[in-house]
Amino acid sequence: MMKTNFKKSVVLVLGTLLVSMAAHAGEKFKVIPRVHNGAATIEVEFPNLKDPRFAETPDFKIVNQMEDSPLEWSKLSDEDRLRAANLIYHLTYAKQYFLNVMHSEEVAKLEQITIRINFINDYNRRTHWSDENNNPQYNTSNSIPAGSGFRVKFDDKGEMIEKTPISWNREIFFRPAKPLSVKDILNKLPQDPLNPTIKTARDVIYPTQISTAIQNGFRYLSNTNGSTQIVSSTTHQVGTLAVIEGAFILMKQVNRWLLPNTYYLDAAMVPEVIYHEFSHIALSDYMTPNLGTPVIEGYADYFAAQIAGTPKLAKKLKAYSRGFERDGSKSKNYSLDLENNDQSTSGYVLSLLWGLHDQKKGLGADKTLELVWDARKNLKTYDAEIRNQLSHELRLSCQHLCAHPGNDDMTIIQYFDLRFTNRKY
Ligand SMILES: [Zn+2]
Phi then psi for 233, rounded to 5 degrees? Predict the structure, then answer.
C-alpha cells in the first residue's frame, strides 16, 4: 500500500542526507536511529556544526533549560550528550523532509530554532516562561510560537526591581522524564464507586479512551514534595480534571491489570516525538503550535508518521517511553468528545487520516498527503473540528487537486461516513 514512487523519492532524499551526514570525518555522536530497533544507538557525525565544540547548527541550537548559549559537548553527561545529538540528528532529518518532500516555503525561510532540554518551566505568552515552581512540566514536549513581552525580577521582599522587554523566536521545549507510579496515583484516589466523579467518567469515557485519558492525565500530574497529585493546568479547562480523575478510578476498578507500573516519557530521546514537535514548527505559518486542538495535534502526529515512515509512534522504546504510544494503523471509534482539546492526544485524527491511505477505500497515500498538506491553511483555528471542518476541507482540497474530483469526492464521503458512524470499513 505504501510502495509508491512518491515514497521511494522520500527514501532517496532522506538516504542522501544520512550519507552526507556520515561522509565527513570528525567526532562521532551516538543517536537513537529507529524506534523499531528499540533503544539501540548508532554513531553519526555532524559536519554542519557551527563550532565543533557546541551543539549548534545553522538550523538548531540546543540549550539547557533557560540558557542562551548552546550546550558544550565536552561538559555534558552521557545522557545529555545523547539527548542533544539525538535532537540535532532527528530535527535535521525532519527539516529535510519538509524541504525536499513537502517543498515547504515556510521551512525554507525558517530561522534558527532554539531547543531547550531538561526544561520544566511552563510556557507563558507574556514572560516566555513561568517560574519553575509554577506548574512544572514533565514527560512531555511543547513547541511555542514566537512572542514578546517582559522579564521581571523581584527582590527578597517581593518588590519588582527590574522589568526588561524581551522577545523570542519559535522554540521547542523538551521536558525531563519523571516516572509516575500508577500505584501511587490510584492509591490516592477516592474509593467510593458512587462518587460523582466516577459517574462523570462512566458517562464520558469509553473503554478504549481510558488510556488516552490517562495520557492526558499526565499533563495534570505533578510530583511535588515527593507525592504525586493532580494539578490544574493554565492551558486547560477545569472540567477535564474530574474526567481524568474518573478515568483513573475506572481503571482501578475495571482495568487495573492493563496498567504498567510506571508511566514516563523522555521526549528528547524518542524520534517520533521530535518529528511531531518539528512538524508543529513547520506547520506554524498556519497552525499555532500550542493551540492544542485535536486537529492541530493530529496534523503533527500525521507528519511525524510520514517522516518516521510508520503510523506507530513512540513504540518499542521502553527505556525512554512508556504509556505514550499512538497507533494510527488501528481504526478508532469516533465520539463527540474526541473534538475536545483534552482528547487531542487520542491519536484519532492520525488514525482517520492514515485510513485514507487505503488504495481501495481511500485515496492512496500520495493523494491523501497532498490534500492534508493543502487543507492545513483552513484548519488553523481553535474551533476547527474533526467531523465538520477537517473532512470538509479535505473534500474542498480534492476539488482542485484530485484527478477525478467527482469520483474521488464520493470516495471521501463514503470513507468519512463509515468512520464517523463507526461502521467497519
Ligand atoms: Zn503536539
Answer: -115, 145
